[in-house]
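Q: Predict the assembly, please.
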Amino acid sequence: DTGVSQDPRHKITKRGQNVTFRCDPISEHNRLYWYRQTLGQGPEFLTYFQNEAQLEKSRLLSDRFSAERPKGSFSTLEIQRTEQGDSAMYLCASSLPAIQGLLAKNIQYFGAGTRLSVL
Amino acid sequence: AQSVTQLGSHVSVSEGALVLLRCNYSSSVPPYLFWYVQYPNQGLQLLLKYTTGATLVKGINGFEAEFKKSETSFHLTKPSAHMSDAAEYFCAVKENSGYALNFGKGTSLLVTP
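A: Predicted assembly structure:
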């Protein structure tokens, strides 16, 4: 168990550029979540995958944000035409399948995050 | 919708003193509640969780929390603070009908010698 891995750890980009972040969940976890954390705030939920299906995406912040999990393993979060307001920490989390038990599926394990700075 | 409120954005305690971080929740159904800790430039680490059963929950690093339905609270305590406890602490509630965790704004714990 190597934990949730996120890459890159830091990204600096210019306004208007596109950025993509990668998340590798814990290997046996089929559920994957993306959150955004701005300075001085708690994480804010963005989207959720169960295997390759994106079951919740209405809380992505705008249509510039999109996420994929094509094979049900790693996931990517893309932000197009970045704006300075997109500067934040982007966190990924994963959790076990429901068949592992009600308690287990409610525990989300977080990665170290990708810190985005838009200049 | 389920939500949490953390009272006090900054808490300062002396090393060896009691740590008390406050969290109140809003939920129309029995909630699933969590405390996470975040060290600088790191992700969130689960400290403890309440789902069902015993209302006093013990977590890692000597922390515990008590679920009080009558007070809609889930305060985090530790009998004796250590310098290494200095970090940001987040209370969270799981949405009963969904998948998301709704986090509070966090409480920054400072431990002084």
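The interface with chain B takes residues 4, 6, 31, 33, 35, 40-45, 48, 55-56, 59, 91, 93, 102-103, 106-113, 115 of chain A (CB under 8 Å). Chain A has one helix and eleven strands.
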